[in-house]
User: What shape does this take?
Amino acid sequence: MQLAVNILVLAAIYALIACGYVLIYRVSRVLNLAHGELMMLGAYMLVATASAFSMSPVMAVVIAALMSLAVGGMVYLFLMRRMTGEMVLAAVLTTVALGILIRGAVILIWSAQQYHPRAMLGWGNPVITLPGDARISLYAALLIMATVVVYGGLFLFLRFGRWGMRMRAAGQDPLLAAQRGINLHAVFALAWGLSTFTGALAGILIALDSGLDSTMVMIGLKAFPAALVGGLDSLAGALLGALIIAAAEVGVIRFIDPLLADVVPFIVLIAMLVIRPWGLFGTREELDRV
Amino acid sequence: MSKPLPSASGHFRRSYADEFRLIETRLAKTSAAAFALVLLVFPFAVSPFYVDLATQVFLAAIGALALMLLTGIAGQISLGHAGLLAAGAFTTGILYKEFGAPFWVTLPSAALAGALLGVVFGLPSLRLRGLYLAVSTLALHFLVVYLGGEYETRRGFSTGILVDPPVVFGYEIYAPRVWYFVLLAAAALTLLICINLMRSRSGRAWRAIHSNETVAEALGIGIARYKLLAFVITSAITAMAGALFAYYRGFVSIEAFSLYLTIQYVAMIIIGGMGSLLGALLGALFVTLFPYVIEGAMAALPGADRLAGSVFAVNYAAFGIVMILFLVFEPQGLVGIWRRVRNYFLLWPFRQTALGERP
Assistant: This one.
């Protein structure tokens, strides 16, 4: 039972991060390798707001998340907008460079020490005992809820929302979408903003649960196989992919070798690339379009 | 024609023998001789610190040239370069530690391990393109690094493997100046191999694959064969660079082969200029010297010393900014700048570039 809960928590983390990769890839065909860093930046935003808004902790969390939304939009407007129409490699490498820049800047501003935003906000982290004698911390439970809410919201938004429809259109055919009067730059900026927002949400909740330092980037990178296993342009795929990766990782830690933990997602990724490169729910033609 | 004529020089080839000459014009001959002379005198004219720096540049140049063949010429994206370096270094370290193998055994073994790994890295390239290929090489990087780490912990070398200086013909390569010449020779040899690959059948095939795979196949080029060949050659050279790195440092630890190292090598070929061997050399020089320049600048600037505790963070940030600036404003890299400057002086007082010459 405890094993199932562990898998579920890890899957929720990966899924919440992976939807950021999927959003950006689906809309603009760019793989954002700075996602882990952007997510970490979101968590550090909370450190900044926590000391500024020590009166109202909820306010601090909300403002940190909203700031990440703005950061994501600005990353597109000031940087990635210039890379539209360039080689795929150039765009990906720009995100890599952005990632290094953020990593350096974060350490410069906040130093390399470990932070505990939960203590800064004055919140506790009670352990909830579930039926079947499984234990889960409050923030891990919140993480699962956040994942459900975010995915539900994204499904509704993409299916019925006016801007969601525009995003799908831009992803299917940017040229036709632009011809129909859709402001592509606004749509792409929105995708980057939403992606960073969900990533930061994951980062903030992980930081609240277990503290924050620059190793968080690795979690962001490990979530990437989840997105690819499910299919880079499919949200439902990201959910399933996260579950597969999390199950593999927790299983290996429990039964084989804890040292393998950091590699398992990538082994699953290689296996998937050999069998079915476009992922479980991905569109097959994507391979030739990149 | 396998390579363009020297630009605006008034030089033309009149026989087939001219096509095969490495150095064509008198200006090229004199400048190459002068450059060689400078390189030979350099270690005797400066302090050991600069000799070490130059040696690092040569080492980086070998890896950058190899990556340029794969990514810049053949167009196959790889984010697993640090993994290949690690494979070479660990082959050397393990063979030395377990069997006491000499230099003449470890270096070819490293090349062989690299070539085998190159096949493994290259196999996905037969099915995958672009992003997906980059991702699969990235995944393989983590796998190699894990295996190296596993070896370290299992055998109790958790801090790293110590490697003694190599002995060649009864002579121990230890002194910095000796290393300087050894690695200079290695880099020069790599450059020669790369130049010859570029102007032979394989180089033409790679460039054709890079421009358009379908057309290349229609021309009768074996896509699978040449893609794998690119991966194998690159990996073998890179693994040998890794082996030399292990000997030069005298120490192998998996910590040294992080994702950041891969990014540094990729940055070398971007900053240097995609598709040009000269670019790989310039990029290796730039990226290797960059942290020292930053450090020097921080020491010189007033008020920067409060950041002294986090030099590496400043490095990261500055490196990211420089990479972004090159990607956005100068996609041709340092070579693009060099070509513009050269053409300006070659054509002065006119402004027009020669027909068919890139601006």
Remarks:
- Strands of chain B lie at 161-162, 167-168, 171-172, 251-252.
- The mean pLDDT of chain B is 86.
- The two ends of chain B are 20 Å apart (CA to CA).
- The CA atoms of residues 124 and 136 of chain B lie 7 Å apart.
